[in-house]
Amino acid sequence: MSRWTFLSNHAHVLLCIYRDPTARLRDVSAEVGITERAAQRIVSELEEEGYLTRERSGRRNAYKLNPDVPLRHPLESGHSVGELLEVLAASRGTGDARRSGSSVPARTAAEAHRD
After folding, report:
1. Distances from the Cα of 3 to the Cαs of 6, 39, 78, 92, in angstroms?
2. Start-end of H helices in 1-115
């Protein structure tokens, strides 16, 4: 029996970073079930396409998501990555934006710590 999921590793990495903008890629890779090198490649690709930006915060990276970037596949291109993340994160009840039903803001590490 094959094991597959509905979402790609790119979506899983984005969701992890959305939930914790200061997450270490080691932790993201463990949660997603991929190698740290694969997580680094995915973050680089997401950064190249404008889905996130990487900022240094002391000795660690902090990520800021751009929720307005449209999903890539033609079937979903009328929706933004922020819409997807809002729905997926709501199931765990994280963040004020998901609880209030407002649109997903771009989040920084400081904002995540206030949640």
Report:
1. 11, 20, 29, 24
2. 9-19, 25-32, 36-48, 81-90, 96-100, 109-114
pLDDT in tens, 52-72: 999 998 889 999 999 999 999
Residue 12, phi then psi, degrees to nearest 5? -65, -45
CATH code, 37: 1.10.10.10
Mind listing the pLDDT tens digit for each residue in 88-102?
988 765 544 433 333
Number of domains into which the chain is organized? 1
| Phi, psi torsion values for 95, nearest 5 degrees | 80, 145
- According to DSSP, residue 11 is labeled H
Within a domain: 27: yes
Q: What is the pTM of this model?
A: 0.76
